[in-house]
Amino acid sequence: MSNEKVARFNKHHSVVGLRETLKALNKNQVTSLIIAQDVEVYLLSDVLSKINHSEIPVSFFESKKALGEYAGINVDAAIVALLK
């Protein structure tokens, strides 16, 4: 993940996890997504189908553990959504 995106992540409001990301997508609040590279693809099927025809950018983070730590939670995180 680039330094520019890391800096932007720190400035934006965000939600962590699949359930919260789906809620934010349903409310059209997501500006971009950060997905852990080691997440199982089948877990993301609902998210990927929702963003299929949108222009929401997707970035990848090295692992679920690292993304969870970076998001400030004590557990692994598969996905983080940056909000409007």
From TrEMBL:
Residues 13-81 form the Ribosomal protein eL8/eL30/eS12/Gadd45 domain. GO terms for cellular component: ribosome. Gene3D superfamilies: 3.30.1330.30. The keyword Ribonucleoprotein applies. Keywords: Ribonucleoprotein, Ribosomal protein. It comes from the Bacteria. Pfam families: Ribosomal_L7Ae (PF01248). Transmembrane segments: none annotated. The keyword Calcium does not apply. This is Ribosomal protein L7Ae. It comes from Staphylococcus carnosus.
